[in-house]
Amino acid sequence: MDEQLELSVCQNPSPEPALDLLPLIERVGVKCRLRLMRWESAWNELVRVALDRVGPNVSQIGTTWVGNLAAMDVLRPFTLKEIEALGGSSAFLSSSWETALFVDQPQFWAIPWLATSRVIYYWRDLLEQVGINEATAFQSLDHVTETFSRLYASGVAYPWVTQVNNSFFMLHNLTSWVWGAGGDFVTADGRRTLFNAPEARAGLQAYLSLYPYLTPNARELTDPQVIKLFLDRRAAVTLSGSWLPADLRRQGAPPELMARLGAALPPGPAFVGGSNLVVWQSTPYPELALKLIQALLSPPVQAEYGQSVGQLPVRLEVLAQPPFSTDPHFQVIVQALKTGRPLPRTPRWGVVEERLVATLTHIVDDLYAQPEEKLEAIISKHLDPLARRLDLILAI
What we know:
The protein has 396 residues and is of the alpha/beta class. It has helices at residues 16-19, 21-27, 39-52, 66-71, 80-85, 94-97, 124-129, 141-153, 167-180, 198-208, 223-231, 244-250, 255-258, 286-296, 299-308, 316-319, 328-339, 349-369, 375-394, and strands at 6-11, 33-38, 58-62, 111-123, 158-161, 235-241, 261-264, 272-279, 312-313.
């Protein structure tokens, strides 16, 4: 009967790691079919599954997608007894567990599966050459600005590099600056925006003030291209996800080069994302679906599959074991996961996020097109009307 189950997973970016998932699941006694989706098109495919009520029994989804799918009344909620059978909430990273909970909704619509975070990576020797102390280089918003300024003044070709042309990636990066300045994006009840409040504006301005240190020809790079530029040591610093060390090794970075790679927490709480598991309401095999989720949360799958796709386990017992407890890069990423935060979990966050990322793109376009214009004026031009419009929507 297990073969009747279908699991959909998102490729990241090639299908090879996903294909390796089936043997890992079978190792713990579960068999299923696999449906592969690409992250860039997965949302549209999942909406089709929701509308047709035909397709996979269990699906991997982005952590920020849970609320929208729950609002469509297509997910099967988990009972407290089922959650206890998975180890209870205390068995999971608290920041990941939060992604399954929503304001004013008592149901558990998802179970965390894998986690990722944003971390600052740098080449130790490149910082040392210009007299920068790596212990304090990224300690605060001001320290980051000073570090990039000194790298730029010293003639480093690329003081830092990150993916700029993906507005969602940009949002995930800048959250640390907003939270580090004491700001947020919406109120706890989701009824009013906060991204235009003074604290959040200060964090956003501090992050965008780093863009002049992004060399113009690096502003249209994809994430793989950013990683290649950093691997070639043409860039001293990058802000990237938990997948970067594994990607560097896959691209041929030898152990002696990896020893020069440093990792540091961002200057505020790190963004915590990743993926969750959901059971579709239409599944005729709810008990087998839960058995599959138990298999996906087993230590072999958590440890081995997570590393193959550049994400980390969400179960604390697995994070407490090597290599996560011993590798210096993993140690920083785990700390980021334990001290970081997910994006807001209010029912209408999807509306806010969609419009905010579009506006951020316009802000960056103006920043590049009008370098003489004051950054504060550019931010006000776009955020003020957006905040007014969204406040009217959220108040309803």
